[in-house]
Amino acid sequence: MPTVTVDGEKSFEVESGKKLVLAIEDAGIDILHKCGGNAKCTTCRVEILGGDLEPPVPAESARLAREADLPSNVRLSCQVRVNGDLWVAVKNRASQQGIDAGPRPMD
Question: pTM for the whole thing?
Fold first, then answer.
């Protein structure tokens, strides 16, 4: 099973093919996902620090293209499937924003 490491603070195994946002949340790490995993917002974005990923799906590419000044290694965790080891940084946490994380994304 692949291992995901988040912000250097926690590493955990993930079932292959699981959405990254769900893997992060299920590991007890605070992550925003206001649109419920539909690539409509960018609150679940992560910075990919290492690992191999599939290219973004069209919905993810289109949504990220609407944002200014995002580094090329930023992805929407609701659109990423974990198929290998990953090192990521969560960019938005509900506790830091003082808001609810949002509806749980579907798998």
Answer: 0.94
Domains identified in the chain and CATH numbers: 3-94 (3.10.20.30)
Specify burial of residue 28 (Cβ count, 10 A radius: 0-12, 13-18, 19+): exposed
Predicted confidence (pLDDT) per residue in 60-81, tens digit: 999 999 999 999 999 999 999 9
CA angle at 82 for the pair 44 and 51, rounded to the nearest 5°: 95
Angstrom distance (rounded) from CA 24 to CA 19 = 9
- CB–CB of 23/12 below 8 Å? yes
